[in-house]
Amino acid sequence: MNFVMDAHIALVGLPGSGKSTIGRYLAKRWSVPFVDVDVAIEEHIGCTIREFFAKEGEPKFRDVEQEVLARLLSNPQKMVVATGGGAVLRPENRQQLMAYAQVVYLSASPHEIAKRLQRDTQRPLLQVDNPFQRLLDLHAIRDPFYKEVADFVVAGGGLSAAQVAQRVAMQVELGQHS
Ligand SMILES: Nc1ncnc2c1ncn2[C@@H]1O[C@H](COP(=O)(O)OP(=O)(O)OP(=O)(O)O)[C@@H](O)[C@H]1O
Ligand SMILES: O=C(O)C1=C[C@@H](O)[C@@H](O)[C@H](O)C1
Ligand SMILES: [Mg+2]
C-alpha cells in the first residue's frame, strides 16, 4: 500500500472497542510498528494492569499511563498506537494525542461491547456485577472526550473486526489525499 504516515495513528475508544485488534491490522497494512500502550505500561510497571490497579489504585495508574503515552508519542518513528480506554480522561493526554497523532475513535455501543467481553476477566473496570451498566457509565463520561480528540469517528456496529479495520484504513488513506 503506497501510503506514507506523516503522524502516528492513534486509536481511542471504550475497552473492547477493538483498538488492539484493529491497530495490529493497520500496522501490518502500512508496514509500521504497532504499539499497545497497555502493553508498554505493563512492561514499565513489571506486572499486569489489573494487579497494579489492585495494589496502587487508579490515580497512580493514570500517572504511569500519562508518562508512557507521552514517551511513545514523542518517538519520531511513526507508529500505530492503541491507547488505553481511559487515556482521554486527562487533558494532558488529549493535548498530546491531538498534537502528535491522527486520532481515530472506534465507536461501538456499550451493548455490543458487553456481548464481546462477556467472558473477559482482565479489564479491571469491568470486573463488576453489571459490566453493561459500567460500560454505559464509561460511555457517557468518555464519548465527548473521544470525539474531542478524534480526526475520524468509525462506527463498528454489526461489522467484523476485519471490516472495521478496512473502514479505518480507507478513511485515513483517503484523508491523506483530500
Ligand atoms: N468489530 C468487532 N467485531 C467483533 N469482535 C470484535 C471487534 N473488534 C474487536 N473485537 C473483539 O473484541 C474483543 C476486544 O477487542 P480489543 O482487545 O481489540 O479491544 P480494545 O479496544 O483493545 O480493549 P482495551 O481498551 O480493554 O484494551 C477481542 O476479543 C476482539 O477480538
Ligand atoms: O478504560 C480504562 O480506563 C482502561 C482501559 C484499559 O485499556 C487499560 O488502560 C486499563 O484497564 C484502564
Ligand atoms: Mg487493548
UniProtKB/TrEMBL annotation:
Tell me where it resides.
Cytoplasm
Q: Which gene encodes it?
A: aroK
Q: What is the lineage of its organism?
A: Bacteria, Pseudomonadati, Pseudomonadota, Betaproteobacteria, Burkholderiales
Example of a GO MF term: shikimate kinase activity
Protein family per UniProt: Belongs to the shikimate kinase family.
Primary localization: cytoplasm
Describe, as the record does, how this protein assembles with itself and its partners. Answer: Monomer.
Species this protein is from: Comamonas suwonensis
**What PROSITE patterns is this protein classified in?**
SHIKIMATE_KINASE
| Main enzyme class | transferase
Binding-site list for substrate: D38, R62, G85, R142
Keyword Transit peptide listed? The answer is no
Q: What is this protein called?
A: Shikimate kinase
Biological pathway:
Metabolic intermediate biosynthesis; chorismate biosynthesis; chorismate from D-erythrose 4-phosphate and phosphoenolpyruvate: step 5/7
GO CC terms of this entry:
cytosol
Q: Which SUPFAM superfamilies would you find in this protein's record?
A: P-loop containing nucleoside triphosphate hydrolases (SSF52540)
Q: Where does ATP bind?
A: G16, S17, G18, K19, S20, T21, R123
- The domain of life for this entry's organism is Bacteria
Question: Which co-factor is required?
Answer: Mg(2+)
